[in-house]
Structures are given as structure tokens and as C-alpha cells.
Amino acid sequence: MSIYQRALTHGVQRLITKPRLALPVLITLSLTLAAVLTVVAMSSNLIFKPLPDIKDEQNIYHVDRQVQVSEDFKISIINRHGAAEFADYYKQIGEVATLHARANFVQVNDQNLAITKLTASNNFQTVIANTPLLIGEMPNLSNQEGAVWISESLWRNAFASSANVVGRQLELEGRQLIIRGVFVDFRSFYSMDDIVSQQTWQFFDLSSHLADTPSNQFGGSNKLFIKTQNQVFTEEMLTQFWQHLFAKYETELASYKGMLEQMGTSSKVELYRAHLMKNQNTLIIFLFISVSALLFMASLNLFNLFLSHYQQREQELATHLCLGSPRKRLFIIAFLENLPLFLISALVGLFACAWIIRALPIISGGNIEMLSLVNLDLVTVGIAIFIVLIINAVFSLSAIFQCDSTALNQHINTSNKGVNAGKMSPLTKALFIAQLSSAALIMTGTALLAEATYNKVNVDLGFTPGNTMMVKVDFEGQGDPLPSEEQLRRAEEQRLHLEILDIKAQLSSAAQNVQPQLKILDSQSEPFGSNMMISMNFDEDTNEQITYMYKNIGADYVDAFGLKLLAGRNITAEEQTSLAQVAIINEPLALQLSKDGTIESAIGKQIGTLQIIGVIADHYSLVSKGRGYPTLMSPIINTANTGVFIMMQLPEGQTFKQSELETAMLSAHPKIKQLKFDSLASIWDNHIEQDRIRFYFISGLCVLTLLLAFVGSNAMAVGFSELKRFELAIRMATGATRVSLLKHTLQSITPLLLIAAGIAIALSSIGYGVLQQNHSSLPALSWTALGLFGFALLAIVLSAITWVVWRIINADPMRALREL
Amino acid sequence: MKTLVTINNINKIYQQGQVNTHALQAVSLQIQEGEFIAISGPSGCGKSTLLSILGLLDTASDGQYVLADIDTKTLNVDQRSQVRNKHIGYVFQSFNLIDSLTVFENVALPLEHRGASKKDIKSAVEKQLAAVNMTGRLDHTPSQLSGGQQQRVAIARALVGEPDLLLVDEPTGNLDSQNGDAVMQLLLELNRQGTTIIMVTHDERYSRMAKRQIRLFDGKVLVEQQEAVA
């Protein structure tokens, strides 16, 4: 067996014979690698690889025109008519297609299946998607009406991949649709809802919407794409189209244009992939920096462990050198010895990475887009191997060069002249300081970010959501246009209001039969503002256009959600029933309308036809996290814009019997098409989901940092104690107790620990300062947090050292003397 | 006879803080091929320091050291390793056998570092182990051997590369008198076969067995005498 083969064999044997070296390396390196590789896999698949089911993505642009509702909230104003106009305007430059995706259900053979409902312009499959038609015919003007195409997964699950599926029917939103074909599952698209592979496709002719009346509604949910012939599409081009549109429909869109100008609009043009990725590039970069820092710290820990291992083997290395081995050969021997351990770590890391990737959709709670595209590819495997080879090379090289010519004589030729006093090498000390510094920096950053995120999650809402369930009711005839003539419109509004009251009364009664404790609210809205509309009016007193959030409420709104009435009075039950033209407003709107800076002066003013009768305190809303968004609340229902909702409350601790309620309510009125249940708790949970995940992630990083600091200190303590073991043995032989040995060892390491901690805290505060200068989103440095976590770090390090020293003291230190 | 080792005005100063310790002071020696030299002296006189410098395990603070016509002053770390491998065999007082390797593998190390073929290594190792009467223990590890056996393996390892110079540090220091005598007989036999040996010992009895004896005191050559082999 050659010297190299022997080194490799020894490396394999060491996996079992040296568990104190092998296990920390295996656990630390593989787990850290798993985190790094997951991010590498995400970047590799999400940023660099071509999208699998999109044709020529480099030439496809997602375009959007948005209105700034509030500082935190923008909405799209592109509707089908706008999209059709856009397609017509830019027909020389490229082809335009639209897509709309929402979660829904289909009924097939009495089976209710969750699907993603895709509604697209009929050229989407030829222009954008690369999802071949498996069976049936492509959509066109003659076959798309009353028809549906399904995805391969839905075909397999609902129709057992039957070849005769074309021509069969399924029920979607109460309509029977004929299946015209089956497409391969589509994955690369954006949806506000969870994307599933069971999909339905419905197509429409975009050009037919050129005949639509220009709309003045916000909230367009169609995604608009243009595919150019290798020509860059710019935001200026989109703005130019918008100017053309307002010029073409100058009369029809005059007030709409004024409103948009008042609120502020912006054009957004991005490549198809960028549109899918949203802000994920930043997230991936943040993740990459975090895990790289962890890998760096883990490597420092392991480096110390290896130095300690090779320090114990310096005599062996010195013997090799003495017998004529060049250091290059010793490096190769060390490299080969370590190779099995590092390769196994890479393997375990890859395995763990594969599991993390599988668990990512659950871990991320659906907040990271396109995770279905992430897989363990060759690039990731290659990077795993590259990382461990580099770490191995650096470790082996440093360990060998530690044992230089001066050490050679010292270790090999002691000639029974006693044992050299154990001293840590400067490299070990430097590593320890670097370890503590990086740990302190990561801890400071993560702790401050965690605190900031925690504050976002645990915000004072300014109201009590209570145990509230919101049920969106879709019924026949809803959303039909109202007559334009004032009197007819009023009459229709009144009729609609009564109809809605009737529907709500019957549904409420059905619900209360299921759960008698249910309290049905008169209000249609809730304080988060998930079902509101944005309106605008001219105020003659201030001579300003006022943009505000409009909510339909009842007399019970203020009390049901614990809102504070600051001035005036609440709406009465009679006003609610008679649709009185009264409204209450929030404090920001009152101040905006105020003549003298007091909220009281807003009472009695008119906004449109509504008279202000009261002012409530401002509170948190989904539109404006920073609060301060003007809001107007009135009993007047505008179902065309906000829909019909039933708000129900239960005492805290009681559970809504959702499926029983749904069944009972669906059959309570013949006009009911669909119900959608959403609790305020789940609305809030969804709203803060990203912050919550970020909080968990950052807290996890914090804990992992402490764990790595513990493991690193452990390695340093092992090395230190090994160096001191002769001294310990001699002290014990001359009568020292174990406690006094522990005390002595801790005393000798304390100065280094304190110096290292001081340097670590100084470096981390400087490092954090530099980071903060470059990233203003980072919270300000808190010395309290730094001190607190620095103390925690020191405590962890000290306990790690104490634990190791105590273990070594108890593990027969006298053996060292017998070995002499 | 050809001169194998020449050292001129070698000084070795150890510096620890403000204190300078002169381990060797202006030591000059010429050693011919085939000589058997014993270096003795009281503890701290510089014996082991001199041996370390001769074995290229340490460098002199100043002075010249020429081994087999090679001026060692200009050598870098790897070149010194090569010179050690080719020209020097070193027997340590504490043997310094590698515990994780067998007797065969320990002895084979110098040849492996030289890049010799497996066949050459096998024959050379077996020959050398036979010369020290250790053929039956090829697959043993050092911890399975007695002190005397370990010393013989260490000598075999030092000789397997057929060095010009054999440096032996207190060869009997860790052995009982019976094993010590046996090792000395082995060294004398090697010298008779032509191996140049420099041995550090504090044992006068063994020192007198060498052809030439050098006594050091406070880092200086105190006495140098040529004697007949006992």
C-alpha cells in the first residue's frame, strides 16, 4: 500500500476511530453545507436556469400600470379593455397576451377538486407558454366559448388519464364546461393564491375587448405580457401608451385621469422571470450572505478542531519531515486523510439539502415563488464538492505549515528533558478571536433584525379583531351595472340593498341554526380593510381632491371591533336600515377636512352626498401599515366594487364549524353561487406571514450562531486542554483536586477569552456600522442588544470550555504521565 | 578518507525574552567517512543541540555546516528535508515511531518519501529489519514492541535509506543494560561495515566504545580524544 493509499485508508478508519473529530465535522459541516447548498440550488434554478415552460423568456416582458393607493399599497389599473388597447397600439412591436390565475374548485363526478383556474387570452399558449397540448385541440375563436382545457395532473387525477376526456364536462363556478383538450402542467406563472398542478384553462379573445366601454375601476388582476422580436420594451413605452389611451378616451376617462394623477401612477416593465421572482433576488442574496457567514463561522470552528487534532500529531508530522518528507507530500497525506470525512459531510449535506428543498414550500409557507422549479442539480452537487475540497485544502495546508522547522526540533528531540509548557499557537488564538467576532457580528445583526421583525409581527392594531369570520357571498345578478340616470340608479340601489339584506338575513339565520352562539354583524367591512374601495372627492373648503378608503359598515362596527369614537356620534340602526346618507370618518381624514386643525370641525361636513357625523381613532390596516390612511365608513352599500360580505363573530375560544356553515348557507337562498370563508385571524396571519417567517429564520440563525460558537469553543477548549494535559497530570500527581485543576485551567484561558470578547464586540459593532451604512433597511445598532447577546455569547463559550475541561480532567489525565 | 562533515565556528543562541542562552559557542569539527564519534558532557552542555544542527533539525545562529559537500546554510525547508532523506539517518532517544503504522511501514517511510518503487522498498526494509533481527515483527505496531525492539526498529528506519551519516541520540537512554549493550554492539557492527556514526550519550561506558570522543561543556568543545575501540 502506498503512503497515499494508506492516508486514504487511515482517513476512512478515522471516521470510526476518532468520533470526537469526525462527528463535530460531520454535523457542523453537513448542516451548514445543507443551508448553503439550498440557497445555491435556489439561485441556480431560480436565477440562472431557463424557465422550463416559457418560450423565449428573454423577449417576454410583463407590463403593468399601477396606482399608488398608499405608501405601502399599489394596485394595477390594467383591465381587459386596457390590455386590448395595448395589444392594438403595439401590434407592430410584438404579440400581447394576458393571464389571470386564482385558486378555485372544480366538480367532476361529484368530486370537488382544488385547482388553479387560469384565464388567458387565446394566444397565450402559442406566444408565452411552452406546455404542449397532449390531447384535443388548441383554443381558437370557434371552440373556446363554454369550453375548458385541463392540465395533465387534473386529467390524471380526475379522469384517470382517459383518452376519451375530450368532450366530457366538468363544473366550474356553477357552470358546466366542455373539455376541449389537455395541456402539460404549467408552473412558471404568478398567482396570489397557492399554485397547484391541477389546472383549468379558459381562453378569451383579447381583441374583442376593444369594444368595451373604458372602465374607471382599479384593481385589474390580469397579468399583461408583450413578446417582442428582440426589442427591449421600456417603461417609457408603456407610459406613452397610457398617454395615448387617455387622449383617445378624453371624455370618458376625464375624472378617472384626474383621480389617478392625484394619487400618482407608475409604469412597471420587467422581464418575465423578474416578474415571477418579485423581490426574491434580494431574499436570495440575503439568504446567501447569511448562510455564507454561517459557513465561514463553521469553517473557523472546524479549523480550530483540525489545528487541535494536528497539534496532537505534531510529533508524527515532525518524524515524517525528519525522515525527508517534503511538506507538499505531508499536505497531500493530510488532504487524503481528511478527504473521506469531507466527502461524507458533502454527501450528508446534499442529502439534507434535498430534504430542505422538499420542505421549502412548507418552511416558506408559500412566500417564496416558483419553489417547484428548485431541485438538486449538478451545479449544486459540483459546488458542494468544490466547497469541501477547498476547505480541506486550506485546513490541510494550514495544519501542515503549523508544524514548521522550529516545531520539528521541539517535538522530535525532547530527549526526556521534560515537557514543553502547553501554549496556544498565534493562529489558534487568531482563529478564536475571528470566531467570536463573526459570531458577535452575526448575533448582533440577527438579534436586531429579529427584534425589528418581532415588532412588526406584534404590532398594536388599534382595534380588536375578535373571533371574527368574514364570508364573501357571490350571488346571481351581483355586479350588474347600475342605471346611469340618478333616480333609476337610486331605486336600483335601494332594491339591491333590500335584496342583499334579504340574502344576508336568510344566510345569517341558516348560520345561526348551525351555531346559535354566532353573532351576525350588520357591517360588511372589517378594520383590516380587505374588502374596501378607494374613492376620491373634491373638498370645497380645502380646495383639494381627497382620496380615501371607503368601507360599508353598520351601526355595530365601532363596538364589534373595539374602535374608539373620538368625536361626534356613531351611525344608528335606523340610519343603517334607511340607507341614510351619513358617514363616520377616521382621524386622518378628519384632520384633512378640518378647517381649524381640530377633528371636531369635520363633523357636519359633506363628502359627496354623505354627511360626516362622527370621527373614530386611526388604526392599522392592510393598505397602510404606518396608519394615517384617510377612511370613510357609511351604511351605503356599493356591491359592484366591494362585494357582499357577512361578518360573524363567536366568543373567544369557540370554533367556527366552517363546513357545516357553508353547507347550510349555500342552500339558504336560491341565488347563492359561492361562499368564501376567511377569518380575521387568518387574514392577519397571511399578512404577517413573511415577517413571521423572517422572524423564525432570523431567530434560527441566532440559535445556530450560538450553537456554532459552542461547538467552536468546544474545539478550542479541546486543543487547549490537550496542550495542558501534561501540566494537568503533573498538578494532579502533586495533589491538585479536580476543582482546583478546573479553576486553574479556566484562569489561564480567561485573559484570552476576555481579550477575544472585547475585540469581537468592537469588530462586530464596527462591522455592523459598515453594514448599516450600506443597507439602510437594517435597524439601528442597539448597545443594549449587543451587550446582552455578547454576554450570552460569552456565557455559551465559557460553559463550552468548562464542559470540555471538566471532561478531560475526569478522563484520567494521569495517562499523560504514564505515556511519557 | 574523505571528509563527510565540516562545521566551522558554529554558534547557537536561544533567545527567550531578554535572556540569551549560548547553547553552542564557536564549535568546529571535521568528521571523516567511517568514523564513530561519541559526544558526551553534562546535562545542558549542548550535546543534543549539536546533534540537532548536524541532523538539520535545527539551524545554527551562525557558522558554517557542510555535509557531503553541501553547504547547508542556503537550503530551504524542503531542500533540508531532501538532504536529511538522502544523507542522514537519525535515531531518536524516544524512538519516534509512528503508532498508527506497522513496523514495516515505519521502516519504509524514508524510502517512500524518496519515491522508491514498492519492490525496492520491500527488499530494503526486509534486509534492514533482518540486520536488526526484527524480521518476525513486520506487522506489529510500535506499541506491541518492547523498548529494545522499538530502538532496533528505529535504527533500521534510520539505516534503510543507506545514509552517509547516522546520528544517534542517547541510544541506550530508554533501555536496560542488556538491551543497551545489544544496541551498542549493533552500532559498532554498522560502523565496522563503514557507516559514519555520531552518537550523543551521557554514559561513559558507551562513550569509550567510540573511536573518537568529544566532550562538551557549556557549549564548547572541552576535550577531544581518539581511542581504540574496546
From TrEMBL, chain B:
**Which keywords label this protein?**
ATP-binding, Nucleotide-binding, Transport
- One Pfam family it belongs to: ABC_tran
Q: Which domain of life is it from?
A: Bacteria
Q: Which SUPFAM superfamilies match?
A: P-loop containing nucleoside triphosphate hydrolases (SSF52540)
Location of the ABC transporter domain: 5-228
GO MF: ATP binding; ATP hydrolysis activity; transmembrane transporter activity
Would you name any one GO CC term? transmembrane transporter complex
Instruction: Name the family.
Output: Belongs to the ABC transporter superfamily. Macrolide exporter (TC 3.A.1.122) family.
Protein name according to UniProt: ABC transporter ATP-binding protein
Question: To which species is this protein native?
Answer: Pseudoalteromonas phenolica
